[in-house]
Amino acid sequence: MYELCANQGFLDGTSDAPHEVFATNRYGWGVRATACLLPQAFVLEYVGEVVGRREFERRFAVVTQARGHYYFMALQRDLIIDAQFFGNNARFINHSCQPNCVAEVWQKNGIQRVAIVAVKAIEPLEEITFNYRWSPSFQEFTCLSASPKCRHAGLGC
What GO biological process term is on the record, naming one (predicted)? Predict the structure, then answer.
């Protein structure tokens, strides 16, 4: 049964799905597949420094005042992953209102971690995306998707 589990690569520490970071025309950096990825495939783990709500708010204020890029992901209501200085390629995954992946909280050795998982087949050179509003505990971002199905009207679409 374990062999059929979609999170096998995540659980046993094997490599991430084949991907590369690339310069996009609109968003800065992005991540795209370099091979076909199947639905339910583990793509990447979103890693970074885990900070509390108070420290997150301090860092968020500093970054937004400087108008810089930020790489925050809610793990729980009061625990936020900050991938600014300690992270991996997952921090470059862009938002889409029509994403091909989702972020899910998984357990590994009793510790909560965030896995990026494909929700549909992803072709080689297709950008990997997920909806940044997957978690109700972190709502602030500017949507640049320009998607006709954008659910964040007035937030940059």
Answer: methylation
